[in-house]
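LOG
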Amino acid sequence: MKHSALLVAVLFSLSAVPSPATLSMWQSEVAAGTAPAATLFTTLTSPVLFDIGALSGDRSLEFIFNGNAAAEGSVSSALIGTQSAANGRQGLKYEQWNNTGFFGATAFGVADYTSTVPVQDNVTLHAVFTSNGTTTDFYLNGAYAYTFDAMGLALTGVQGLGAASNADGTGFFDVLSGSVFGFASYDSALSASEISSHFAAFQAIPEPGTAALAGLAGVMALRRRRRETV
């Protein structure tokens, strides 16, 4: 049972934290395609204020992150957002509201929108929200997942990343419990094929099973050493 628990712990850690090579492949794909307005290629474990660029009309927001809705100290958690009216007064949510366990979006002071896409705690995910200004399509791990029919993205300028920021930029709320490993914004609506290619690059390295096998090899070596000392 102890060996099984150790094995589960290794696999869990691999699923929760992407390798630098994996992130590098995604970053290269981002740079090779539609020019981003802004990127953040460092890991965030707490929220920051970040300028996503002067976006207008069509726009897209892309994240590589993991979250833990079950551990949230508040009743919802935001990937990005702000209460500032000048910067869009919206939030994109990992968990929309009150432990319901679904991705969502909010037009602060207007309405909450809950998708039918369940959260996946402690797993690294690739998420893209792309909008024509009237509706917003949500893609998860390279595939179309949901459309927010009544909400077009208006986010622009300085936002809370890993949370939503207060209107005056002095603090955060709806803080994400987890990490943001990469972010990109675009002053255009990414196509479904480009979103798919970004995710394909992200999952291309390590090769299927390589990292897991490396972890398992370590576990098996540990088991052999223990047997040899008995």
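LOG (cont.) second protein
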Amino acid sequence: MKNRIKHATGAKVILFGFISIILLIQPALAEKYQMSLFVGMNHVFQYGSEGDYVLGENDFPVTPAHTPPNLGASFALYLKDNIALELDWRYTLSSKLTLVDPSDQDEVEIDSSKRHTITLNFIYLFLQGNVKPYIVVGGGLDKILAKDQTYTTKYGFEVDFLAPDKTIDPLANIGAGVQFFVRPNIGIRLDLRYVMIFAEPDNLSGLNGVAGISFFF
């Protein structure tokens, strides 16, 4: 419990730092603001190894690739017409995935964990009229919303999946996107990012793609 409290406190400090940066620089430097709402999919690559198999402790060591849906919102302030700082929040839902015991090929179907991510990003736009491609790079925190669960395998065994003690991990992301302006202050946004979560015992990586609408003011 102490570890979880410590990690939660650290996350709040970092989140407060993100927001403080935005608030401190926006009065003097912001030329305009952007609010985006979006939905999409989060494709998580396979992680884990059969070499990590331990009977009775880690019977299902490999988590296969899976693609749960996600949604989110972001707020950006533009330091120039083509340079912005963005605070981005995304909520990933769960999806079904099947784990396999490499020793006897027993299987169990589970729900992937939901998660929150928040990042502070640097965006550079290539100005081209009403169509503006951009690149983005940044980092932040991932919060897994895991809880203890019990499932029954194909062979009839009960298996416990325990929530990790550490539920908050740092992450980095890099990507690109494009904005299509349908009006001077309204745009359609497509965004694709490669995400790396530095977790234990395995790092998680994947592609996060979203589409949404942006409002400028």
